[in-house]
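Priority: medium. Attachment 1 of 2:
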């Protein structure tokens, strides 16, 4: 499934931009491009003798843009090979080999010399390869194994990746999926920066660590545009303070960045450029004394979207830097000031664009699934610590989310994980669990609600947010990954209906903000992802489904009148959007209960859907069986082909004028279209008709609602 940016992907030098803008060196060499590759069994630890196929790095093995585009290989290891020459101007310096990310376990050799091994698919790593180099061509071999292991004691951190895509889980991203590059540095060089803003004190704190912990003198300069606003000299390994006399705070509305240059003094001579912002995220009270999230010491409503960072052509890797930037720009055009980066950690350039364009980010820890053993728990913690450390300097990140919906959470002491996170980064808020399993710790109480939104009241020490809601589903022909449809609620026919539904959801959100004090909402989601069709934009980013201007206004709390709906509504609407009454009973009725002439005067009347433990229920139903009836009025012209819109848990039968029209077993928490059979269709007539249904439940949650639509 291509995107518009594919034509701009260089076949030999893709993603040519410097990969790490938060600590940039002027001299570097990209190793992105065409590599050779070979597959072996996963347990093989010796490189193959030949590399007979080609792959474009840094796109994952499964991605079309890689040139391989094959199914995931959890039982095999992929071996990459290429040669490179060190530029003559770099002679006498140390050479660093950098990887943005490799999924999931990797090894590296240069000229046959083992360089290192790494576990973790979402964090950058680096090797000093100076000792392995030779003049002329150098051989670089990288192996990668992505076991895609879930629901297992030694399950890996993998997020939404799966061997087989389906439902809310998607294609794996095996191997190198972020940029690879070389840098020359002196023996004593800058290893990393720690940049901490203090808005209240009007200072930026800076710690510069040199390789090997060496203490060397340095200077740091802060500029606002071309004007120098702070200059300090000090030593590496010590916290330096850079005072900012005229504060210009960073926010989504005004994403002001200061440039930062750091140079080691004397013979070391290493220098990097970076940037910083004065931005503060904290808890406080709103005008009614309720706990809320503050941005720069003022209450700030965060209206956001879920962003999973998948691409139909690159899977985990955006085709170009322009494409990577586009999703953030699109979110801003919709009026969002927040993106929740869900189940994935992005390349450093994504956070750079969030910093530069002005987008708040809630950053998830990608999930591991299962009751983990001690080794897997320790690996999880290692990867979490790396994620915090490597992204600490980005002002756009304001929340760390340790767990999502209880996934992989049960074997951890969540309170300890939250405490560790606060210890590693006391400057940001911590969300202990987004949805479902709240361990009553951290700074945020987060509810998931589909369609929602709703959430509990703020607590004395925790703000109340809705971390996922909506999921309005619409399939756009010609812009779909597959014929499968996953979403929340009924699959809508057109953009007008998506717009109307979204506007109603945001009306609820703003009402809850006023009545309860909820201070953040995260809509699911910004784009479709594979078979999950609840994006505001199609997976290929070509079609914006709703009326954009109305969505933007709704996100700001302005609810504009909708134009006339160009598409006729459903023949018989479901009760998803409106509390439509139905006659019902939970006592077994006479055999003629589904016929037009049956007397249901003794039945009760209540609004559908009926059930419990299922989204959108308006009337509680907890018994084993329920029978429902409704008289409907049809127009003079009835479409020839019709679908029954059925939401059910569990087995359901639907009747039209006494004749079975459709049935379904199991459960479906969305309004799935089921073709109405010809016998039932033949009985429909203009005017009054009876639609009736029986649903039987045996375990867990339950629910039933029905409607009729034209068959598409």
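Attachment 2 of 2:
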């Amino acid at each position: 499934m291509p995107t518009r940016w594919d034509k701009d992907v260089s076949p030999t030098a893709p993603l040519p931009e410097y990969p790490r803008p938060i600590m940039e060196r002027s001299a570097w060499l990209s190793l992105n491009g065409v590599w050779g590759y070979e597959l072996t069994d996963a347990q093989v630890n010796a490189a193959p003798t030949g590399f007979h196929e080609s792959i474009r790095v840094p796109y994952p093995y499964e991605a079309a843009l890689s040139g391989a585009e094959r199914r995931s290989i959890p039982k095999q290891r992929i071996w990459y090979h290429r040669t490179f020459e060190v530029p003559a101007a770099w002679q006498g310096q140390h050479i660093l080999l950098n990887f943005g990310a490799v999924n999931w376990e990797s090894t590296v050799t240069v000229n046959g010399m083992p360089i290192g091994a790494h576990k973790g698919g979402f964090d950058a790593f680096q090797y000093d390869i100076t000792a392995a180099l030779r003049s002329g061509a150098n051989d670089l071999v990288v192996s990668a194994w992505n076991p895609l292991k879930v629901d297992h004691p030694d399950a890996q951190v993998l997020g939404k990746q799966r061997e087989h895509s389906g439902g809310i889980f998607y294609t794996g991203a095996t191997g190198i999926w972020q940029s690879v590059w070389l840098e020359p540095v002196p023996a004593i060089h800058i290893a990393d920066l720690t940049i901490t803003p203090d808005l209240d004190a009007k200072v930026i704190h800076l710690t510069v660590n040199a390789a090997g912990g060496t203490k060397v003198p340095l200077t740091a300069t802060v500029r606002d545009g071309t004007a120098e606003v702070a200059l300090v000299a000090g030593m590496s390994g010590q916290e330096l303070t850079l005072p900012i006399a005229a504060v210009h705070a960073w926010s989504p509305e005004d994403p002001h960045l200061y440039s930062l240059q750091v140079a080691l003094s004397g013979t070391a001579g290493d220098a990097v450029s970076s940037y910083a912002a004065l931005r503060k995220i904290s808890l406080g009270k709103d005008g009614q004394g309720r706990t809320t999230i503050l941005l720069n010491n003022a209450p700030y409503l965060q209206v956001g979207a879920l962003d999973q960072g998948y691409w139909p052509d690159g899977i985990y890797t955006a085709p170009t830097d322009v494409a990577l930037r586009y999703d953030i720009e699109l979110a801003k055009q919709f009026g969002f000031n927040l993106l929740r980066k869900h189940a994935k950690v992005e390349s450093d350039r994504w956070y750079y664009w969030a910093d530069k364009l002005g987008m708040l980010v809630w950053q998830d820890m990608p999930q591991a699934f299962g009751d983990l053993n001690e080794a897997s728990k320790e690996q999880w913690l290692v990867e979490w610590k790396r994620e915090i450390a490597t992204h600490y300097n980005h002002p756009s990140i304001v929340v760390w989310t340790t767990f999502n919906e209880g996934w992989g959470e049960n074997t951890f002491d969540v309170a300890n994980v939250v405490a560790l996170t606060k210890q590693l980064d006391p400057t940001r808020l911590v969300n202990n669990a987004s949805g479902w399993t709240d361990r009553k710790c951290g700074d945020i109480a987060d509810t998931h609600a589909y369609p929602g939104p709703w959430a509990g009241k703020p607590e004395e020490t925790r703000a109340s947010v809705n971390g996922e809601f909506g999921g309005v589903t619409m399939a756009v022909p010609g812009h779909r990954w597959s014929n499968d449809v996953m979403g929340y609620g009924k699959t809508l026919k057109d953009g007008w209906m998506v717009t109307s539904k979204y506007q109603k959801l945001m009306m609820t959100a703003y009402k809850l903000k006023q009545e309860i004090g909820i201070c953040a909402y995260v809509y699911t989601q910004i784009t479709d992802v594979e078979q999950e069709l609840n994006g505001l934009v199609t997976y290929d980013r070509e079609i914006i489904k709703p009326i954009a201007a109305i969505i933007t206004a709704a996100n700001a709390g302005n609810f504009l009148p909708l134009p006339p709906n160009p598409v006729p509504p459903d023949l018989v609407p479901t009760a998803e959007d409106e509390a439509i009454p139905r006659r019902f009973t939970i006592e077994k009725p006479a055999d003629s209960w589904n016929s037009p002439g049956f007397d249901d005067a003794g039945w009760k009347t209540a609004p559908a859907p009926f059930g419990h433990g299922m989204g959108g229920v308006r009337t509680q139903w907890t018994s084993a069986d329920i029978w429902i009836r409704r008289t409907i009025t049809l127009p003079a012209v009835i479409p020839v082909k019709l679908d029954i819109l059925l939401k059910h848990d569990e087995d359901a039968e639907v009747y039209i004028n006494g004749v079975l029209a459709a049935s379904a077993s199991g459960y479906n928490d969305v309004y799935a279209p089921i073709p109405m059979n010809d016998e039932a269709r033949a009985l429909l007539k203009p005017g009054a008709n009876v639609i009736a249904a029986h649903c039987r439940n045996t375990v867990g949650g339950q629910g039933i609602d029905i409607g009729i639509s034209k068959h598409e």
